[in-house]
Specification:
Blueprint (H helix, E strand, L loop, with lengths): L1 H11 L2 H5 L2 E2 L2 H6 L2 E2 L3 E2 L5 E10 L4 E10 L6 E4 L5 E5 L5 E6 L6 E8 L4 E7 L8 E5 L5 E8 L8 H17 L13 E2 L2 E2 L4 E8 L21 E2 L18 E3 L5 E6 L12 E6 L6 E2 L8 E6 L5 E6 L11 E6 L5 E3 L8 E6 L5 E6 L7 E5 L4 E5 L4 E7 L5 E8 L2 E9 L8 E2 L5 H4 L2 E2 L4 E6 L5 E7 L10 E7 L17 H5 L4 E6 L8 H5 L8 H16 L3 E11 L1 H10 L7 E5 L5 H7 L3 H7 L8 H6 L13 E6 L7 H14 L3 E6 L9 H19 L2
Parallel strand pairs: 1-33, 36-37, 36-38, 38-39, 39-40, 40-41
Antiparallel strand pairs: 2-4, 3-4, 4-5, 5-6, 7-8, 8-9, 9-10, 11-12, 12-15, 13-14, 15-16, 17-18, 18-19, 19-20, 21-22, 22-23, 23-24, 25-26, 26-27, 27-28, 29-30, 30-31, 31-32, 34-35, 35-37
C-alpha cells in the first residue's frame, strides 16, 4: 500500500521536484508538525486535533488547535494566537475546552466554535487556579468540566475558601523561602523528572459555562476558584502518574459519576496495584471496584449505554510488563470479564462502538499494531492491519467511522480513518499536514528479517538502508538497542531515536526485538526477567551476525552500538563482553545494578527484574552488573546522562565515565543539567544528535 502511494505521489509531482529530494536532516525533523490524537465533533462533521510546532531558534515547542473536515479537505489552524493543547469538545459541539499557558500558567480555556464555517470566534480562560490545571474533560451532560491539578493533600477542606488559600499560601511560602531543603517521610518522593514536593495529583470538577453566558466580569479572575471541587481528596495520586496515552479517568454517560485509577498501597514505590475507584460528581466517599486484583487496573472507559466500564488490567502484582488485558465491569451485577484472555498480546488504546456491542483496540504484533474488534462475549478479530503503528482510537458518535493516529519509520503521526463496517480497510488519511515537506526528503522503508536466536526461538530484526542506496557499495552500521526492556521497536516514528535520521548520512541502521520485547507473546516478554545479559545479548549478536551474512552491503568492520535506558544498560554490558564494535554510545544506562536500585524511584521495576533487592538476592544483581566487567572495557564510548533522570540516576553515567577515564579507554560524556530520561528541548536534541553522529563518524567513518 505504501509503495502504491509513492507511485501515485510520483505521478502527481513534477520531475524537477522529485530530483530535489535530499537526505533527511535534523532541521527537516524540527519543521515537522507533531500531530496529536483526533477528536471528532459530536455531529461527525469535523476532526479537531492539536499539532505541535517546534521553533529551533527560540528553543520552544508550541501546540496549536487545528480542524479538518472528516470527509476530507485541507486542515486549518484555528487557534494561532496562543498555545492550545488537548482540545476536547463540549457535547453540543458549539465549544471545546483546551489547555493553554497564555495566562497564569497551565489553565483550562474554552473556545466558541462556529460549526458552519469551522472557525473559532472567541476564546476565554475558564480556570485560574494557583496549582494550575490540565487533562480536562467535558461531562457528557454538558454540566461540568473536570481537570487535574497537583495540590497539597493537607489542604483538603470542604470549605473552598480555606482549600484555595491553603494551596496558594503553600506555593507562595515555597517560592519566597530562602531555604530550599525538603524533608521526606516515604518513598516515591521524586518521580520520573521531578520531586513531588509534598503535592498530589487530584481530580477537580467545576460547573461548565452556559452556552449563552456573558464571558466578562469577575468570574474569569481569581474569584472563580469558588466553583472548584476536589473529587479525590487524600494523600494519594488520583489519577496516578501517566507518561501519556489513554486517560486514567472518565465520566459516566449521564455525567453523574467519575471512574479513575489510583494506588492506595502503603508503599507505592514497590507497588503496581492501581485500582479503579468510583465517585459521584458531587463528591463523597469513593468506592474501589477492583480491590480483588492486586495488580494494575487502569484506563477506565464507560460504554455509551452506561451498562459497563471497560479497562486494562494486569494479573501479576509488581510486574509493570505483565500482559495488558481488556476487562469488562458490569455496573449492575459488579461482575468482571476478561475479553482478551485468548489473545497473547498487549492491549493498547481502546474505544467503544457507539452501539455498546463491542470495542476496538490496538495490540503490539511483530513490530506493528493492528486494530482488533472484540464483542462482549470475548470473540475477537483483526479489522485492519495498516502498515506501521496505530494508536489513539476513537469512533464517531454515529458509529460509522473509526479514527486513529498512524505512523511508520518513514513518516510521522498522521490521522487516519476507516469505515467501522468495513473489515480489512487499510485506512484513508484525514491529515496530510506534513506531506509537502516529506515529499522533498529521500527515505528508505523499514525491512524485516527473522533469524534463530536464544533458546532456538525465532527472533525478528529490522533494517533501514541509507537514502540513494547502492547495493554495490559497503556501508557502516549503526546498531540500535531498544529500551524498556519491554518496549519493542518496529515500523514506528521517533523524534528522539529516528532511524531515518541515523541512516541519512550513509549508514545502515539495524535493530533487534530481542527476548523481552512485546508483540511475540507474553512468554517471550517474561524470558528477560532475571536474564538481562543472557538471552537478549545472544539475540543481538546472532541478529547482527545474520544481517552481516545476508547483506553483502554491510561493512562488518565498521559498526557502532547505540542504546538508551535498557539499551544503555546493554551497551554497557556489550562494553565488557565483546570487542566487535568500533564504538559505543550509551544513554541513561544502568552501570551498577546495586547502586541503581538505591537511587531509582519505581523500585517495583528493579525488584521484579532482579527477583528481589540487593540485600535479598545480591548474587543475581552482581551477575548482571556491567561494572564488574570493567577490566574488559576497550571500546571507545560516548556516555550521555541527564541530571533530572530519576529512573536511572545521573550517578550511573558519572560512575561509568569515571571508570572509562581511569582505564584509559577513549571516552566522552555529554551531560544535560535540564533534561530527564528523555532529551526533549529542541536545541538539546540538536546537540544530542550532532554529538552522537560525530562520535560514530569519528570511530566508524562514513
Amino acid at each position: 500500500m505504501r509503495g502504491l502511494l509513492l507511485v501515485l505521489l510520483s505521478a502527481l509531482l513534477p520531475f524537477p521536484l522529485l530530483a530535489q529530494k535530499h537526505p533527511f536532516t535534523f532541521e527537516d525533523m524540527m519543521r515537522l508538525k507533531r500531530v496529536e490524537e483526533p477528536e471528532p465533533s459530536p455531529d461527525g462533521k469535523w476532526v479537531l486535533f492539536a499539532a505541535v510546532d517546534v521553533d529551533l531558534n527560540a528553543n520552544t515547542k508550541t501546540p496549536h488547535a487545528w480542524i479538518v473536515p472528516i470527509t476530507g479537505g485541507k486542515e486549518r489552524e484555528i487557534i494561532a494566537d496562543q498555545d492550545a493543547d488537548r482540545p476536547r469538545w463540549a457535547p453540543d459541539g458549539k465549544r471545546f475546552a483546551f489547555v493553554s499557558t497564555k495566562e497564569s500558567g497551565s489553565q483550562i480555556w474554552v473556545a466558541d466554535f462556529d460549526d458552519a464555517t469551522g472557525t473559532v470566534t472567541a476564546t476565554h480562560r475558564l480556570t485560574t487556579i494557583a496549582t494550575e490545571a490540565t487533562g480536562e474533560l467535558w461531562s457528557p451532560d454538558g454540566k461540568n468540566i473536570l481537570f487535574v491539578s497537583n495540590v497539597y493533600p493537607e489542604c483538603d477542606d470542604p470549605v473552598f475558601v480555606k482549600e484555595y488559600n491553603c494551596n496558594l499560601g503553600k506555593l507562595d511560602e515555597q517560592k519566597n523561602s530562602k531555604v530550599k531543603a525538603q524533608i521526606f517521610t516515604h518513598l516515591l518522593f521524586r518521580h520520573w523528572n521531578a520531586y513531588k514536593e509534598g503535592k498530589r495529583s487530584h481530580i477537580l470538577v467545576m460547573p461548565a459555562p452556559l452556552v449563552d453566558e456573558n464571558w466578562t466580569g469577575k468570574q474569569h479572575n481569581y474569584s472563580n476558584w469558588l466553583f472548584y471541587h476536589d473529587l479525590t481528596p487524600g494523600d494519594y495520586d488520583a489519577p496516578q502518574f501517566n507518561l501519556g496515552g489513554q486517560d486514567n479517568y472518565a465520566f459516566s454517560p449521564d455525567g453523574q459519576e467519575i471512574c479513575y485509577s489510583s494506588n492506595h498501597d502503603p508503599v507505592p514505590a514497590i507497588s503496581t496495584n492501581n485500582d479503579l475507584w468510583l465517585v459521584s460528581v458531587n463528591g463523597g466517599q469513593a468506592k474501589n471496584i477492583t480491590a480483588d486484583n492486586p495488580a494494575s487496573d487502569s484506563n477506565p472507559l464507560y460504554s455509551p449505554d452506561g451498562k459497563y466500564i471497560a479497562y486494562r488490567a494486569q494479573q501479576r502484582p509488581g510486574y509493570e510488563s505483565d500482559r495488558f488485558q481488556l476487562m469488562l465491569y458490569d455496573r449492575k451485577t459488579r461482575e468482571k470479564k476478561n475479553l482478551t484472555e485468548r489473545l497473547d498480546r498487549w492491549v493498547g488504546t481502546f474505544t467503544w462502538e457507539s452501539s455498546s456491542s463491542g470495542l476496538y483496540f490496538v495490540a503490539e504484533d511483530k513490530g506493528e499494531t493492528p486494530i482488533f474488534r472484540v464483542d462482549l462475549d470475548g470473540n475477537g478479530r483483526v479489522v485492519a492491519r495498516p502498515e506501521g503503528y496505530e494508536d489513539d482510537l476513537t469512533v464517531t458518535r454515529d458509529g460509522k467511522m473509526l479514527l486513529f493516529t498512524e505512523m511508520a519509520s518513514d513518516y510521522p503521526t498522521r490521522i487516519q480513518k476507516i469505515r467501522a463496517d468495513n473489515p480489512g480497510d487499510e485506512g484513508v488519511s484525514v491529515t496530510d499536514i506534513n506531506m509537502s515537506l516529506l515529499s522533498q526528503v529521500a527515505m528508505s522503508p523499514l525491512e524485516s528479517f527473522w533469524f534463530t536466536g536464544a533458546h532456538g526461538d525465532k527472533v525478528e530484526g529490522f533494517l533501514v538502508k541509507p537514502p540513494n542506496f547502492d547495493p554495490n557499495k559497503e556501508y557502516p552500521v549503526k546498531f540500535i538497542i531498544h529500551g524498556g526492556p519491554e518496549v519493542p521497536m518496529g515500523d514506528e516514528w521517533s523524534y528522539r531515536w529516528n532511524f531515518e535520521l541515523f541512516a541519512a548520512n550513509g549508514y545502515v541502521v539495524i535493530f533487534i526485538n530481542f527476548h523481552g520485547s512485546p508483540g511475540y507473546g507474553q512468554k517471550f516478554v517474561d524470558s528477560i526477567n532475571g536474564d538481562w545479559g543472557g538471552a537478549p545479548f545472544e539475540d543481538l549478536m546472532k541478529g547482527l551476525d545474520y544481517a552481516e551474512q545476508h547483506s553483502p552491503f554491510i561493512d562488518k568492520d565498521r559498526e557502532c552500538a547505540l542504546g538508551a535506558s535498557y539499551g544503555g544498560y546493554m551497551a554497557n554490558w556489550i562494553l565488557g563482553h565483546t570487542n566487535r564494535f568500533k564504538c559505543i554510545v550509551t544513554h541513561d544506562g544502568m552501570f551498577n545494578t546495586e547502586s541503581a536500585w538505591g537511587t531509582t524511584e519505581e523500585l517495583w521495576f528493579n525488584e521484579w527484574e532482579f527477583k528481589g533487592t540487593p540485600y535479598t538476592n545480591r548474587e543475581l544483581y552482581r551477575k548482571w552488573s556491567p561494572h564488574l566487567f570493567a577490566t574488559n572495557f576497550k571500546t571507545p564510548t560516548l556516555v550521555i546522562h541527564s541530571q533530572l533522570d530519576y529512573r536511572l540516576d545521573v550517578s550511573q553515567g558519572l560512575d561509568l565515565f569515571t571508570t572509562l577515564q581511569r582505564l584509559g579507554v577513549p571516552s566522552k560524556m555529554l551531560y544535560f543539567p535540564d533534561e530527564g530520561h528523555w532529551i526533549l528541548k529542541p536545541q538539546n536534541s540538536q546537540l544530542w544528535y550532532k554529538t552522537v553522529n560525530d562520535w560514530v563518524d569519528q570511530w566508524v567513518g562514513k
